[in-house]
Design a protein that fits this description.
Number of strands of chain A: 13
CATH architecture of chain B: 2-Layer Sandwich
Shape of chain B: globular
Order of helices and strands of chain B: EEHEEEEH
Helix content of chain A: 25-40%
Radius of gyration of chain B: 12 Å
Distance between the termini of chain B: 9 Å
Number of domains of chain B: 1
Largest sheet of chain A: 7 strands, mixed
Helix content of chain B: 25-40%
Strand order of the largest sheet of chain B: 1-2-6-5-4-3
Structural class of chain B: alpha+beta
Distance between the termini of chain A: 54 Å
CATH superfamily of the largest domain in chain A: Type I PLP-dependent aspartate aminotransferase-like (Major domain)
Shape of chain A: globular
CATH architecture of the largest domain in chain A: 3-Layer(aba) Sandwich
Radius of gyration of chain A: 21 Å
CATH class of the largest domain in chain A: Alpha Beta
CATH topology of the largest domain in chain A: Aspartate Aminotransferase, domain 2
Largest sheet of chain B: 6 strands, antiparallel
Oligomer: heterodimer
Strand order of the largest sheet of chain A: 1-7-6-5-4-2-3
């Protein structure tokens, strides 16, 4: 069942080979796996890793850690004032020293969709690899790794109706074959033989993907994720995206009725997914979140683990409404009613 | 002898530059906590009787009938416990 989950998820993202699907704890661990197993052995002093200022901390901190160890340089591409990626700056920052570009497919703060297929092509033209942080895209839209030509794609189960503690790193098999393991232990080896003459163990590593799955894996999580994927497929990812697009359009229109509410990032749903960051005049984002909480409406407040992007926006923090397949237009109407009550504070 | 911890389930520091502190009261004590706080703090504003803007001396905070309170500009845990002691005990 565990291996059939791998097959299912490979098909879901159109991976060529299920050997390219590694089960991890989530997007964060997937990016860390690449940073350590690939970055530690392939980055040297002066090499460059290209990310953007809209990244989640999980796509910044692992690279900063590797930078301290290897001496590689982390380059940060700019974000436009409306929250979209500054493609010109991103492309200009590629050089013959760039070894990998690591970019979110969808911003977890603004919902902005990045053209990762284009960036992957630019990366490959410069001889660099491309990692796509798919935490906010894989659950919400069709994602085809072969079409994007991503070398790595990271995503989490708990954002797509699966349980917490399970996630996926997709990687091209030929890269995985050359990469060193992330952790050592059982399952990830073929043989550990003690040589009496040498008084040491010879370790023969397993093939990908098992080479990267040391110890007993989260079998239950992987099987649950397979079921979540089956459910999403039964709806259709185009339908999922269409539903969220409808809700986002409607919510933006209704939120614009509220005089004390400021929306951050683009409001054109052609540019974004179902995430709306906003502020209410005179209230901190945490006040806003607690106010909604009182009415049984859950939103997120704070930096959303993306402090650099808040610095770009010159915001101390933001409130964030987001939608998924289970949300309805009526729920947005209720959200707006509460938002209007909040404006009385 | 009751203590602040008899009423408080957890204290969360918020992320963001505001560094607010959210106090979540224990489920079975939240109604009593809300009642005690409303009796001791000065009411500045209320919305629908479920959200209260309050002050205690120079500390302003917002109390929610759902059993949570958000305090701003709290320097440390000791200061928060001192305020909660005044409000709850």
């Amino acid at each position: 069942m565990y291996e059939s989950a791998r097959e299912k998820i490979a098909k879901f993202v159109n991976a060529k080979d299920s050997a390219g699907i590694i089960f991890v704890r989530g997007t964060t661990e997937a990016i860390n796996l690449v940073a350590y197993s690939w970055g530690l052995y392939n980055l040297k002093k002066g090499d460059e890793v290209l990310v953007s200022l809209m990244e989640h901390h999980s796509n910044i901190v692992p690279w900063e850690i590797i930078s301290k160890i290897t001496g590689c340089i982390i380059m940060y591409a700019k974000v436009n004032s409306n929250g979209t990626l500054d493609y010109e700056d991103f492309e200009n920052k590629f050089s013959n020293k760039t070894r990998i570009a690591s970019l979110s497919h969808v911003s977890n703060v603004t919902g902005v969709i990045n053209d990762v297929k284009h960036i992957a092509k630019v990366a490959h033209d410069h001889g660099a690899l491309m990692l796509v942080d798919g935490a906010q895209s894989v659950p919400h839209m069709p994602v085809n790794v072969r079409d994007i030509d991503a070398d790595f794609l990271a995503f989490s189960g708990h954002k797509m109706l699966g349980p917490t503690g399970i996630g996926v790193l997709y990687a091209k098999k030929e890269l995985l074959e050359k990469m060193e393991p992330f952790q050592g232990g059982g399952e990830m080896i073929k043989e550990v033989s003690f040589s009496g003459a040498k008084e040491q163990c010879d370790v023969r590593l397993n093939d990908p993907p098992w080479k990267f799955e040391a110890g007993t894996p989260d079998i239950c999580g992987a099987i649950a994720l397979k079921e979540a994927v089956s459910y999403l497929e039964s709806i259709g990812m185009d339908q999922v995206q269409g539903h969220e697009c409808f809700l986002t359009n409607y919510a933006i229109k209704r939120m614009q009725e509220c005089g004390k509410v400021t929306l951050h990032g683009p409001t054109d749903t052609a540019l974004k997914c179902g995430i709306i960051p906003f502020s209410v005049e005179g209230l901190s984002s945490h006040d806003v979140a607690l106010f909604f909480d009182n009415y049984g409406i859950m939103i997120r407040s704070g930096f959303h683990c993306a402090q650099p992007l808040h610095q770009v926006f010159r915001l101390q923090s933001s409130a964030r409404a987001s939608f998924y397949i289970y949300n309805t237009r009526e729920e947005i109407d209720r959200f707006i009613e509460v938002l209007k009550e909040m404006e009385q504070l | 002898m009751p203590t602040v911890d008899d009423y408080v389930a957890r204290i969360e520091g918020t992320c963001g530059e505001e560094k607010d502190v959210i106090v979540v009261f224990k489920y079975d004590k939240k109604d009593e906590a809300v009642k005690r706080i409303l009796a001791r703090a000065q009411l500045k504003n209320t919305v629908a009787g479920i959200i209260f803007e309050l002050t205690l001396e120079d500390v302003s905070f917002r109390l929610y009938a759902s059993g949570k309170a958000i305090f701003r500009s709290i320097k440390n845990k000791e200061e928060l416990y001192s305020i909660l002691t005044c409000l709850l005990l």
